[in-house]
Amino acid sequence: MTQEDLTITDPKMKAHGVNVFYGEKQAIKDVSIDVGTDLVTAFIGPSGCGKSTFLRSLNRMNDTVASARVTGQIELDGEDIYAPSMDVVQLRARVGMVFQKPNPFPKSIYDNVGYGPRIHGLAPSKAELDLVVERALVRAGLWDEVKDRLGESGTALSGGQQQRLCIARAIAVDPEVILMDEPCSALDPIATAKIEELIHELRGKYAIVIVTHNMQQAARVSQRTAFFHLGTLVEYGKTTDIFTNPKQERTKDYITGRYG
Amino acid sequence: MALTNDHTVKAFDEDINRLRGLISEMGGRAEQALLQAMTALNKGDLDLAAQVVRDDKKIDALEAEVEQLTVQTIALRAPMADDLREMIAALKIVSVVERIGDYAKNIAKRVALMDQTRSIEAIPVLMSMSNIVVELVHDALDSFAARDAELAVRVTVRDKNVDDFYNSIFRTLVTFMMENPKYISESAHLLFVAKNLERMGDHATNIAEMVYYVVTGERMEERERGETPEESAAAEKEQG
């Protein structure tokens, strides 16, 4: 692969020589990758390959695991996110995350979205908060479905709606990066298509990284794909190249279903 | 590589193997059609010619079967990378092989239309030309079966010989026609035969280009063809 083709102009996040350990076990080995705002990046690979671990190191989610240790350099807008001066709460607002299973708070739809902006002081008045909540729900493609019942519990929504609510919640604090860890694995095909359409809509507004087991999904939503195997980044390239003409034998074996 | 490396889902391998078998059978039938058509032309064998025309239906049927299986496999298995390239190549290759069969049928149909007393010398040259074309078609399909990109490149290089034959036969037949109007009808038929053979050579090249794409994931470039020893040797010969 030619380096020029893959250069991300103005990368939002840069990871260089990243290693992640869980106790003695090394889960990620010397991974370097850039993530940009204009392109959706997909991480693919078999279970246990480290893709989720690496994703979680991008907003220091691994801090919550006692035995986890991260070395190497990860920068957000040129700033080392593991520097002692970094405010982790602030970091996670800037680098939002959407999980595999929708996890709305057991609160109203309105509060689910409004909670973040309120504690981060993004909306001092009720009117401003109303506006932030509406804008986030519109962007997440959920507004028309919930605008008349914002007071209802978020957990009363369907699975797909809950996931879009979680995306609205992430968007509400005006993040720069959104990390998605298998966001559709618990959803039916229609709800999945809506999330994929949403990812397409959000591209360019936020840097988006998605971990997915569904290779068709990676092919559909991303412009760049990174294949992880046994904790290493085996191949990174344009999604069209990875799925039509991968350079590495291991990538080919995995995406064609010859792995293992 | 891919040939020895099985998919986790065995039924996928079975589909692919069946596809390869069908393409191989179709290619074999097209080669045979060409050989028989040329033999029928050479010997004025009308029965053999009629058989070539009849057998072409089997080639058409095989094309339809491959198309159906390919579409089905793409829909059900969502092939990726070299598997995907193979599906696309399979579709293109069978349409080319079907054309080769049609050209053979066209040659066979001419046998009955021509005066059976051969008065022109061009026939032995046409036979030599057709032998090269049969080899090219055979090697092109072999390169597909063996995933052999080098063999595919050599096929495209050797197609030049077929073109040279065609140009030479064209000149010869035009000369015949000018010398004696009595030969015009027969010469015109033989000219079409030569043109059919020349087109078949081009189709063998098309197959070879698809094989190259399947194996390497790249399009065959002009310079790729120029790099083969045959061509550089041929170039040297011309200069010397």
List keywords for this structure.
heterodimer; A: 260 residues; alpha/beta; six-stranded mixed sheet; four-stranded antiparallel sheet; 11 helices; 10 strands; globular; B: 240 residues; mainly alpha; 85% helix; elongated
The value of Rg of chain A in angstroms is 18 Å
User: What percent of residues of chain B are in strands?
Assistant: under 5%
- In the sheet with the most strands of chain A, the strands line up as 6-7-8-3-9-10
The total of helices of chain B stands at 8
- Which H/E pattern describes the elements of chain B? HHHHHHHH
Overall mean pLDDT score of chain A?
92
Query: How many beta strands in the DSSP annotation of chain A?
Result: 10
| Count of runs of 4 or more consecutive helical residues of chain A | 11
Helical amount of chain B: over 70%
How many β-strand runs of chain B? 0
If you average the pLDDT of chain B, what whole number results?
A: 88
Question: Which pair of chains has the greatest number of interface residues, and how are they split between the two chains?
Answer: A-B, 17 and 18 residues
Query: What does the main sheet of chain B amount to?
Result: none
